[in-house]
Amino acid sequence: MGRSILSHFLTISHSSYPLFPPSLCGGSPMNYMKKTDFFRSPRRPSGLRGTGFRCFCSVSVTEPLVPETPPSSVKKRIVSGVQPTGSIHLGNYLGAIKNWISLQNAYDTLFFIVDLHAITLPYETQQLSKATKDTAAIYLACGVDTSKASVFVQSHVRAHVELMWLLSSATPIGWLNKMIQFKEKSRKAGDENVAVALLTYPVLMASDILLYQSDFVPVGEDQKQHLELTRELAKRVNYLYGGRKWKKLGGRGGAIFKVPEALIPPAGARVMSLTDGLSKVSIVLSPLQFVSLYSFIHQTIVCL
């Protein structure tokens, strides 16, 4: 579904060498390439014309890259998602889903269920599977129109994890150590119980956004820092692998990623807990903190 980001990283875009240096691709520039008829690039090294190429990653995209100056008729793209960590509550609705209904009419929208983010904390497999289906049902019940928006499960698109790994190689560890949410959640869970995935959570979020060349990202106040990291990471990758310096070494130059902008909703950017007015709603801490949207809809259907 996304643009050909991984192909842009890992396939040949110049007559001499690929975009990424050999150190990031496991040896010589051609080691990670193999012949296939599935992906045909308009640019091929001399001596290899008439042959298609694909990288060893699981994604091969035939879509062209997004033009730097798209036509005015092309809608701006928005990407957003909700974790299936339990009951969808009014905080999710007011802060995200409610705004999607109006956004889907004016933008190219992708709304997905971020189940990979949900496993950064302890979880039960069966419960997560059920919660994922319930979340999809909530999306549709709240008015998300699949004829206008793309709805999918994050883990079903392997490119999210693959791009995350590439982005991790360009992410300074100091950037992640400064994330406020990581400090808060690790303190509550205890350092000995904290998984590495909780630390790298913002990199996966960056992958979710950059993979689809998003123009805007609806975020609440608690996610603004993560989006800022995404923006800085996009700029860093563009500088390292898309700038003039890399062009002189044989790369194609130009920006690889769009730098997304925050889209903060006029209301619901931060919905507070019903038991603690100083804390944000969290289903992880206590079910008494929120009003379940799923229970409300389920009761309404039963009554009908």
Automatic annotation (TrEMBL):
Keywords: Aminoacyl-tRNA synthetase, ATP-binding, Ligase, Nucleotide-binding, Protein biosynthesis. GO terms for biological process: post-embryonic development; reproductive structure development; tryptophanyl-tRNA aminoacylation. Its EC number is 6.1.1.2. The keyword Aminoacyl-tRNA synthetase applies. InterPro entries: aa-tRNA-synth_I_CS, aa-tRNA-synth_Ic, Rossmann-like_a/b/a_fold, Trp-tRNA-ligase, Trp-tRNA_synthetase. Gene3D superfamilies: HUPs. One of its GO terms (molecular function) is tryptophan-tRNA ligase activity. NCBIfam families: trpS. Belongs to the class-I aminoacyl-tRNA synthetase family. This is tryptophan--tRNA ligase.
